[in-house]
Amino acid sequence: MFKNPLTLIMDTNKFNGTNYNDWLRNLRIVLDFENQGYVLDNPLRTALPKGSSLEERVTFEKWLEDNNKVHSIILASMTNEIQKQYDRLDDVPSIMLLMKEVYAVPERHIRYAATKTFFGTKMIEGSSVQSHGVKMLSLVEKLEDLKAGLDNDTYIDMILQSLPPSYDPFIINMNGFEKTIHELINMLVQYETTTHKSASAVLVGEASTSKGKGKGKIGASQQSKANVCIHCQEKGHWKRECHNCSPTQVLERSRRLSKDEMILRLDDGKTVAAKAVGSLSLVISNHIRIELKDCYYVSKNGILSQWTPPGTLHLNGVAKRRNRTLLDMVRSMMTFMGLPPSFWGYALETAAKLLNIAPSKTVPQTPYEIWHVFLEKDFPSDSGRDEALLEETSEAPQHDNATSFEPSVPTDSVPVFRGSTRESRPPERYGFVGLTSQLDNNPRMYKEAMSDIDSDKWLEAMKSEMDSIGSHQVWTLVDPPKGVRPVGCKWVYKRKLGADREVTAFKTRLVAKGYTQRPGVNFEETYSPVAMAKFIRILLAISAWYNYEIWQMDVKTAFLNDFVEEEIYMDQPEGFTSVGEEQKVCHLQRSIYGLKQASRSWNTRFDEVIRGYDFIKNEHDPCVYKKISGSSVPYLVLYVDDILLIENDVKMLGDIKAWLSTQFSMKDMGETSYILGIKIYRDRSRRMLGLAQSSYIVKVLKRFKMENSK
């Protein structure tokens, strides 16, 4: 009986389709323990020829026995869904070959992922350097196995770069030595141990000692507790021992270092001895106090204070960033417009004014709005010194030599701030794209369609559209009511192309000019959802994995399926005016394409109908539905008037299509191969599905006359 304690590895780490490399490694470990790993890669003949020797028969029988055992181990280490795909295969090499084709990740991808992990791994401040070193060492060994081609110096440099800032002294001293990776990790562990011991031995000042003689003398430790420093008023030391009076007073808690205890190597190659080590407290701009530990004090190479003179606002950090913003705007304007340097001052004034009148998310009130009231009463001043802000009761000083001005026109105290009324136009750099996007071969109006080479096909398509409108009783002809301006309409023409850019149909649509509608008069709500692309991709992936059917249906004149609630009147369509009733208008009973509310009305109508057939709306996408019927769960996706049906039960899908045809005028498109401009490639034997938009790429290339480019 096959007994192997290592088979527990396969039980706890079953193959689920995403862990092929780990599963294969565990499988080889288990089989190598029993000397059966050769079965994975060495297929034998299914039968021995006549006249085979005894040795060949023994070898063949052993292979059959080992093949059956390994076959059982492989199937037992898979999930139920994947197990069903391979239980029909008897020989192990065939199973391994198929799994390699489907699930194996190329070695180049594995090497890329390992290299990315190695370069991106960083040690967290305060964590164990030993565990970090073990992790980096395992990554190095993995890269060596994958033949990444990195040398020892590169590994050393990347490990040093992964350390936190507290290891900077170690890195500076380490750069001049040649060490192996194992020696480096050992030195890091020793450095961590030494640093922690030093941190635990931090002293405040220097310890004082006293040589007591005889009996009754007070010990030095007892004396120091009663001493009070006259400088910092703290107990435990004298002023001559106070750390605040020492050169290292910038460190709150410090420990003096011996002469050669810590030697730091500078960027220019010089070395300098640290005098002390301790903690430093800083208060940042938002009044948060942070403490920096293990700071080294160097007497002649410390931090230099940079003072800002009064009146030099350009040296302030906030003002410097604001000036940089102004200069960036000026350079952009000068470069884009091609202006000479003489316009620099005008560009700077324009940039400053734009910043002052443009609100932002962090500054809801512009400087213009905030300061306008204060600046309404400007008066000159000869003083160049800093002065306090004027009080509200301050009066303008009187000057004998003041120039008289004409009386100003009285205005409101707070002017109304308004935005720009200039016409918004797209940038000129998009002009060519906008122009070429209009260059298609579809007629733009009725007269062009009638003079087109395919005028008979356009006329036939328009008649079909009018027949559909008549069957739905979309409008009735009435005399135009007084005071009511009817909505206009127009014909829209489109040559429908297939995946290979060939013309498959001529489609026309009568569209109302919805831009002439007025909110609150002949429309209210307009929002209408469509299925999100990510949900369509998710359902297509599920269909490919479980080998579901994907069928497509199209709703003919979808927007004509719901009634309108508002009173809407429309002009009669061009080319189809009723004889003898030319003065009448169309009183719309149903929605029509182009109306503001048409899309919402159709979506509401479809939702009511589909819920009546026990479909449930998805919580995250209102255009994705599902229906639970026993073991079958069909999915329905709505994208305006295109419908996707996904299910493994063909009979139920047929019932759903038949029911939809009774509710709406439907067109059965069969199995999906092209939807929303995306071509679908499917290999059901391998349970794979691909999406392509090659036709859109070809369209863009043709638009810019680049279809022959390589």
UniProtKB/TrEMBL annotation:
Any GO MF annotation of the entry: nucleic acid binding
Pfam families documented for this protein: Retrotran_gag_2 (PF14223), RVT_2 (PF07727)
Keyword tags: Hydrolase, Metal-binding
Gene3D superfamilies per UniProt: Ribonuclease H-like superfamily/Ribonuclease H, Zinc finger, CCHC-type
SUPFAM superfamilies (UniProt xref): DNA/RNA polymerases (SSF56672), Retrovirus zinc finger-like domains (SSF57756), Ribonuclease H-like (SSF53098)
InterPro entries: DNA/RNA_pol_sf, Retrotran_Ty1/copia-like, RNaseH-like_sf, RNaseH_sf, RVT_2, Znf_CCHC_sf
Organism domain of life: Eukaryota
The keyword Cell cycle is annotated on this UniProt entry: no
Residue ranges occupied by any Reverse transcriptase Ty1/copia-type domain in the UniProt entry: 473-709
Disordered: region residues: 392-432
Name of this chain's protein: Reverse transcriptase Ty1/copia-type domain-containing protein
Biological source species: Sesamum latifolium
